[in-house]
Each structure stands twice: as structure tokens, then as C-alpha cells.
Amino acid sequence: MAQAVAAPARIKDIVDVEGIRENQLVGYGLVVGLDGTGDSLNNSPFTRQSLQSMLERLGVNTQGENVRTANIAAVMVTASLPPFATQGSRIDVSVASLGNAKSLQGGTLLVTPLLGADGEVFAIAQGPVTINGFKAEGDAASIVSGVPTTGRISSGALVEREIGFALGTQTSLRLALRNPDLTTARRIAMSVNDFIGAPTAVPEDPSTVRLTLPTGFNGNIVDLLTDIEQLIIQTDQSAKIVIDENSGIIVMGKDVRVSSVAVAQSNLTVSIAENPTVVQPAPFSQGQTAVQPSTDLSVDQTDTTLQVINESVTLQELVDGLNALGISPRDLIAILQAIKATGALQAEIEVL
């Protein structure tokens, strides 16, 4: 069980600024130079078609030919275009096999256009692929480490098109809270207005604070953002319990409270042990030796008396009261849900 505490934070660490964002890029390409670990062209028709189209653009006609090669693989190429990336700058790209290639080790990505959500080309990727795993095999054994069908090309894409957004010319923009909260949004606005000395920030909703460049401010909106992003804000959060039932993890917010309740919990343990015995036939009976099954089955049920969890004022008091029950985290999940059902738990439960 862990405690999530709302701590003071800088404005730049709890908000996103309108217009300052990444953009996702994707492309389809070919990796060549593989040592027999590429796609099987018979099972990957898209690889065959891509190879033939590429060769035709280079002046080589392979239509109607039975092309057999295992040194090429079709891949998907992805990248994130940083905000304000300029034409000619470089970005990293990730490469993942699309067909049945065994490994991309030693391969080189050929020129691959990277498209944005609007279908326009924003970058061109090419270069040797670096993988994080490997695969080695012999006639009777093989070993695989990591995922050899994915890789990365550091600075492997060249930005060809910029996304236009003139931040410095804006007179008004929005701050988006990463964790929406009415109290936090209001505190941000009050802190900014107190620092600037003018009505500059207005909370519009739990997720948004609007900034307006004040009259007579010595600078543009970039100067304003630079001035306020270091301001310290005491963030707030709603009372919430997050439960991951698969791993048994429970995380509680600091404002979780519980009214006085009584809890009883029963532990049921079922043990099964197999002890087969060998039965020999009687002398001169011409019988056969047989195995007779023998199963030991036991059920142990431990009942606990009602335990009172007193009304908690702090998270530590609630944790101490629950720990006093001496139960496992998985049983605690069921108890918290049952307390919530009674209306004694003043918090939201979110199950992952």
C-alpha cells in the first residue's frame, strides 16, 4: 500500500501549453542487408510487391520473375515530431517488422517518407537499424534475447516540413492541467495574477486556465510563460483509491477517509496432496503390478472476530486500522469495495 501526497509543484510541471505539442508520424519501408533473417516472400506478398515497386523505380524490371531472397523485410517506421522542429533537424525513429522476419540485425532502412495524420510528408527516414535483442540458432537449438524484430535509428529521420505555429505572436492561450482539478486551476490563476499584478489568468474549467497578455507587459507571450512557469503551486486532488486486481496493488490518496465500521474476514485454505502407492500382486497369481491412487484432501477455515476500524482523520490512521486486520492485499481489495458499498468510504474507487 502506498500513499499519494499532493506536493508543491512548478506550473511548468503540471500543465501543458496550448500549441506546444508533439505530432505522431508513421511510414512503411523496407529494411535490406539482413543475413537470411528477412521476410519469406511466399508468405509476405506485401514485401514482394514493395520490392518489385522499388526495383522498378530504380530501373530494374522484375515483373513475372520468381524472386527469392530472405535478406529484406517490410517494416513500419514511427517517430514523434517535436514541437517547433525546424526543417533540416533530425529526429529518432523506431522500426518494427511487419512480416515474418526473424531479426532486423545488421539491416539498413531505405528511404521512407513519414506521414502525419493529414497524410502529408513531414520527415524522411533512412539509416542502419540498431536492435535491442538478438537471435542465434543451430540445427538443434536456438536462443532469443529481447525482441530482435524491433529496432531504432538514432537521428534517423530528417525533418522536411515544419508545423507552423507562431507562439510569440499570440496574445491569449490556454494552459491545460495534466490532472484536472478545480482547486488547482484556481490556485494557478491566483498565483499568476498575484505575480504579474494584473488580471492575466482566468480558470475556465477544471482542465483549463486561460492566459491573456496584459496591457503594457514588457514582452510577448513567450516572456510571460517564462516568467510564470517557475511559480510554485500547491496542487490538490480528489479522494481516490486505485486498485490493480491483477497484481494486488493498492494506492490511496491522502484525502481518503472512512467512517467507523466493523469488519470480519474468513480465510479458507484447501490442500490437496497426491500419494500414490504401488500394489504388488499375490505370489503365483500371474497378476500385474499396479499403482493405486491416494489423495489427501484437507480444508482449513479460519474465522476472525469482528474488528472495528475507527473513523479516520488521516490516511495514516486508516492504514493502521486496515493493517490491524492482518490480511493480504488481495483480501484488502474486497474489504475496501465492501466498505464502499456500505457508504462508509468517502473516496472514489478506480479499478485498473
TrEMBL record:
One Gene Ontology term, aspect cellular component: bacterial-type flagellum basal body, distal rod, P ring
InterPro entries referenced in this protein's UniProt entry, alphabetically: Flag_FlgI
The organism's place on the tree of life at top rank: Bacteria
Broad class of where this protein is predominantly found: other
Keyword set includes Signal: yes
GO biological process, one term: bacterial-type flagellum-dependent cell motility
Subcellular location field: Bacterial flagellum basal body
Pfam entry (one): FlgI
Keyword tags: Bacterial flagellum, Cell projection, Cilium, Flagellum, Periplasm, Signal
Family to which the UniProt record says this protein belongs: Belongs to the FlgI family.
Subunit comment: The basal body constitutes a major portion of the flagellar organelle and consists of four rings (L,P,S, and M) mounted on a central rod.
Role description: Assembles around the rod to form the L-ring and probably protects the motor/basal body from shearing forces during rotation.
Name of protein: Flagellar P-ring protein
Gene name linked to the record: flgI
